[in-house]
Amino acid sequence: MAECKDSGRSPSSSMDSSTHPVLSTTSSGCRPAARRDDLSTDLQLGLSLSPASSLLVAESKSIPCTPRNRVLPDWPPIKPFLRSALTASARRQRTLFVKVYMEGVPIGRKLDLLLLDGYDSLLAKLRHMFKAFITYADVMEYHQRVPHEKAAHVLTYEDQDGDWMMVGDVPWELFLGSVKKLRIARTDKC
Amino acid sequence: MTYFPEEVVEHIFSFLPSHSDRNTVSLVCKVWYEVERLSRRAVFVGNCYAVRPERVVLRFPNVKALTVKGKPHFADFNLVPPDWGGYAGPWIEAAARSCVGLEELRMKRMVVSDENLELLARSFPRFKVLVLISCEGFSTDGLAAIASHCKLLRELDLQENDVEDRGPRWLSFFPDSCTSLVSLNFACIKGEVNSGALERLVARSPNLRSLRLNRSVSVDTLSKILVRTPNLEDLGTGNLTDEFQAESYARLTSALEKCKMLRSLSGFWDASPICVPYIYPLCHQLTGLNLSYTPTLDYSDLTKMVSRCVKLQRLWVLDCISDKGLQVVASSCKDLQELRVFPSDFYVAGASAVTEEGLVAISSGCPKLSSLLYFCHQMTNEALITVAKNCPNFIRFRLCILEPKKPDAMTGQPLDEGFGAIVRECKGLRRLSMSGLLTDKVFMYIGKYAKYLEMLSIAFAGDSDKGMMDVMNGCKNLRKLEIRDSPFGDVALLGNVAKYETMRSLWMSSCNVTLKGCQVLASKMPMLNVEIMNELDGSSEMEENHADLSKVDKLYVSEMEENHTDLSKVDKLYVYRTTAGARDDAPNFVKIL
């Protein structure tokens, strides 16, 4: 097994190494055979998924209207083959496991959010895991108009500030950057 | 004119090294034109729409090697919409009708279908070499056709193509009688290959010099293959993860050690740091190393490898190597001629561990450096000026600061002086690509000093039309100009229209050119195709492909009229000289004026 390297080692550049996304993934890359269950939900993600990165927010001039954690298809100018090879590598190494509890059920589950591509697949996955009909922000409004289809459960999450919020209000990428835990709550208590 | 028998003239022509020389002699007189065209063996078509395929094959019926390039360069960065064009079919069909002696076909940025490959495989009995670079539209079924029917195949080189995977069987289609392979590169194939078929193929290819495997090939298979290829010069490994035992790696090392001719190494898919020491025995003999697909190696792993590569001439690496790692490269690789540092993080304004410091270190340690592609976090004028003094031999200089319009990191100034120094000192510069905060001043320098510049790429730069005009007027050898997101408009576009006939092409996207400006260009220069593409194509119902000349004249005359449609900006403009007229395969979103 590879010796896991200390991610505190710093390249000699003006960048703080702990915000360097590749270095943080490299340290998990040292143990590729480690099973997913071993990884903590507090896994520190690279800069790219955390909107508030101290150093770069200070330095950057804004690229108009583009959130910091977006990827543009045409910048930087690299060939598609390299782009997809690096994205595939990154996806293989990056995980975002969060605990999921359903109200009334003591044993929780864990879910890698980076394997999903949006809210719909998150809901589908959870419905499958918990065998329950769960709703979230957008869908709830629909159900309020059509009362007889009201779901018994609604999906909420704990964000980086420790607040419990309803899932679905912010873009998926922003959600990934701030979610810490998921909770499936009963709608009659919301 | 002195009379020589045609065979003598032909023999003299065979000493002419370049296409342009042969093109020139063909213009001297009819006799020479005929001799030249019948004896021409290699034809290079830089823009597939510049000339009709039928015309090429009829003029050069005895051509053996054909090279055709399709989409504009910015297609590599997703700036050209899909289905724009660049179809290989007409070229292969024309050659199949008129040049059955064709032996080599090289295509770049073209759309190639399985049917095209099937036709290719069946039409040319002496076919030997197929090189496809950045192409798309075909699957492994097309490769199977090539494998089965090209009995004399020597080279199958697939570089960075988008190939649909239809299973591993294609490799098994090489018949047992196929023993002629010299070069096989399938690194871009996404799926599995049958390792038994691969091993058998290598075993019966004694002339194999270059082999690039894909991600699916295991360390064990690689070891078995290498035992059979002691004369291998260029190797692209399969995956080198650490799911394998140390014994597998030990077998790999001993197999690699037997490859005394091995000079170039690439692949390293998902390479784990523990595999790196197993490569050490090879490092001292390497002249080329490509680690650009390996974000799993950090600067410590990379520098341990690179510091041993004392003969290295070409290094492609990710920015994980960091400035510190580049300093190690500078002190170890004194023969370095080409360096490419790619970004590993490409989120908007992503971080990079590579800055101007790494580049300065390289320039002072590696004076032979002539070709650079450098993605970095920041740059300074002082660094660029130092680099220019240290390395006056640059032929290709491409610098990409990840954040557009970023100024000098020390002074906050534009980077005009830095790039100005590059073009002033590097008198042989042929290709330049710039980034960071740049004003019209840098274009003034380019127009003034970059006399041999052939290709210029501009992004998010300049203040006014004057910038582009300085380049158009000053760079006598300019062939390709590609511009995005820069404030150049109709005045620049129309400032030197005759220039476009001396160039291969002009690309402008997200600039300030208007439909009217493009129409004026089209009407003044019938030898050009002026293609426009708009994102929100509200006006597409109005016109067919060609604006007829009378309509254009009316608009040109009535400049005073407020005509909002014509003053609307054009999203993407592609202008190129052509003898073929407007192309008939353009999709709906492309309007040819």
UniProtKB/TrEMBL annotation, chain A:
Entry GO CC: nucleus
Keyword Nucleus tagged: yes
InterPro entries per UniProt: AUX/IAA_dom, AUX_IAA, PB1-like
Biased composition (Low complexity): 9-18
Keyword ATP-binding: no
Pfam families registered for this protein in UniProt: AUX_IAA
Biological-process GO terms, alphabetical: auxin-activated signaling pathway; regulation of DNA-templated transcription
Ranges for domain PB1: 95-189
Keywords for the protein's UniProt record, in alphabetical order: Auxin signaling pathway, Nucleus, Repressor, Transcription, Transcription regulation
Record text on subunit structure and interactions: Homodimers and heterodimers.
The protein's name: Auxin-responsive protein
Organism this protein belongs to: Miscanthus lutarioriparius
Automatic annotation (TrEMBL), chain B:
Any one GO cellular component localisation term in the record: SCF ubiquitin ligase complex
SMART domains: FBOX, LRR_CC
Domain of life: Eukaryota
Subcellular compartments: Nucleus
Single GO molecular function: auxin binding
Pfam families to which the protein is assigned, alphabetical: F-box_5, Transp_inhibit
Gene3D superfamilies xrefs: 1.20.1280.50, Ribonuclease Inhibitor (3.80.10.10)
Any one of the GO BP annotations: pollen maturation
Pathway the protein acts in: Protein modification; protein ubiquitination
Key word Nucleus present: yes
Alphabetic keyword roster: Auxin signaling pathway, Nucleus, Ubl conjugation pathway
Domain F-box residue range list: 4-45
Chief subcellular location: nucleus
Signal peptide as annotated in the record: none
Record carries keyword Ion transport: no
PANTHER family in alphabetical order: F-BOX/TPR REPEAT PROTEIN POF3, PROTEIN AUXIN SIGNALING F-BOX 3
Subunit structure: Part of a SCF (SKP1-cullin-F-box) protein ligase complex. May interact with auxin and auxin-responsive proteins.
Protein name: F-box domain-containing protein
Organism: Miscanthus lutarioriparius
